[in-house]
Amino acid sequence: MSEPLLPPIGMLAELTHRCPLQCPYCSNPLELLKANRELDTQTWLDLFSQAADLGVLQVHLSGGEPTLRRDLEQLIAGLSARGVYTNLITAGVGVAEGRIVAFAEAGLDHLQLSFQGARPATTDRIGNHKGGHEKKLETARRARAAGLPLTINAPIHRHNIEEVPEFIDLALSLGAERLEIANVQYAGWALTNRDQLMPERAAVDRQAEIVAAARERLSGIMNIDFVPPDYFAIYPKPCMGGWARDAFMVTPDGTVLPCHAAQTIPSLSFERFGPRSLAEIWADSPAFNAFRGTDWMQEPCRSCDRREIDWGGCRCQAMAIAGDAAATDPACAKSPIHARMAMLIDEAQRAAAVPSTDTPFVYRRIGVVTEPA
Amino acid sequence: MMALRERALVSPQSVPSLPQHVRIQYDPVRQAFAVLSPEKVFWPNDISLDILRRCDGRSTVGHIIADLAVDYDAEQEAVAADVIAFLQEWSDKLLVKL
């Protein structure tokens, strides 16, 4: 190891893969787990307790749609009792009256609400859920009424990139402290739909200018976090802050992963909570150690002075595009196959230019891809 | 409860506090104080921590400066510049409420 093993700070808990929305860029895997594979309440509570012991300070409760778990209040209370900062990541559709207040009373610290569009028609079309936008607005109002701090999350792609100024106005009008303008990452469902989702270069440039100006204008009023689109980048993002460096995630069945898409790397196998403790998995899991630190790096990463800034970028993107999970993230201009990113952008533009009938996306849903026996 | 719709500027009369989405907490694993906020964890140094702890929603910035000047046995003017710059930066990031 090039640096000592530090305790993790953050954990993303995907409580369920069930979701009322079908966004075509969902970060869940193509093989979605059904409800009968989900951990029960007590196992999640044990896991949270071990996470707190291990040094986790922030837990993001996500899914699928985490509010579909009827025990969510109990799970929040368990985290709160351990002093863990608890963030609920919700689509805000179909959350029963009274539950947001119950979450706040259980000790929820913060709520993050996604909007697929700034306009109702966009939100409803991208999530494939009629009336979704209105329900989200109602969830935002309830969150504010319950005194919860609010982040609006806007996943950005070709079909809503021109709505970025409207997303900013929407977040302001909802009283949000924070807005995430997050360009979709092409893994999982988003990779399947890449040609349909890839924005045009000119739109990406406009977006960057709009966000930079808004950040300056809204300093001290609303924080804007910007996740720029990888394919248009010069340097890669420090994916997860570095593989297994200070965060990890847990899938609905208790599989512990360094990141969302880690299961797309075929050479790795992952362990489940239960048979092994979180502490053992964090320290000893071969999958966690595979790309930890810098020792695993090849050139040009190995001798790069940015190796401890971006940690080689995204391993899953290296797998998907370079065919080698230990390669430099092709988003990096120093990658020998960086030019392939520009080719993929061009390919997507050509595909988008062909008038299609009405099969824009492969919407995410259980059973599109069958589960292995 | 609406977020502030105008950028707040620090003055000696400001009464800073931590907003609801920010909390200071001792972390027994790392044996250090952490500032927890949505998505981010900060590890303040001793001086930052001394300022943040005084953001109790009762003390004015002027009072905080005078208090710190005594504690650090320092010139009030020098302390004032540092405290005001710190609080403005944290207020601009919505980590401190004025």
TrEMBL record, chain A:
[4Fe-4S] cluster binds at C19, C23, C26. One of its GO terms (molecular function) is iron ion binding. It comes from the Bacteria. One of its GO terms (biological process) is pyrroloquinoline quinone biosynthetic process. It is an enzyme of class 1 (oxidoreductase). Its cofactor is [4Fe-4S] cluster. Interacts with PqqD. The interaction is necessary for activity of PqqE. Belongs to the radical SAM superfamily. PqqE family. Catalyzes the cross-linking of a glutamate residue and a tyrosine residue in the PqqA protein as part of the biosynthesis of pyrroloquinoline quinone (PQQ). This is PqqA peptide cyclase. It comes from Mesorhizobium tianshanense. The lineage of its organism: Bacteria, Pseudomonadati, Pseudomonadota, Alphaproteobacteria, Hyphomicrobiales. The gene is pqqE.
Automatic annotation (TrEMBL), chain B:
It holds the Pfam family PqqD. Keywords: PQQ biosynthesis. It comes from the Bacteria. The keyword Transferase does not apply. Coiled coil: none annotated. GO terms for biological process: pyrroloquinoline quinone biosynthetic process. Pathway: Cofactor biosynthesis; pyrroloquinoline quinone biosynthesis. GO terms for molecular function: quinone binding. Signal peptide: none annotated. InterPro entries: PQQD, PqqD_bac, PqqD_sf. The keyword Iron-sulfur does not apply. Monomer. Interacts with PqqE. This is Pyrroloquinoline quinone biosynthesis protein D. It comes from Mesorhizobium tianshanense. The lineage of its organism: Bacteria, Pseudomonadati, Pseudomonadota, Alphaproteobacteria, Hyphomicrobiales.
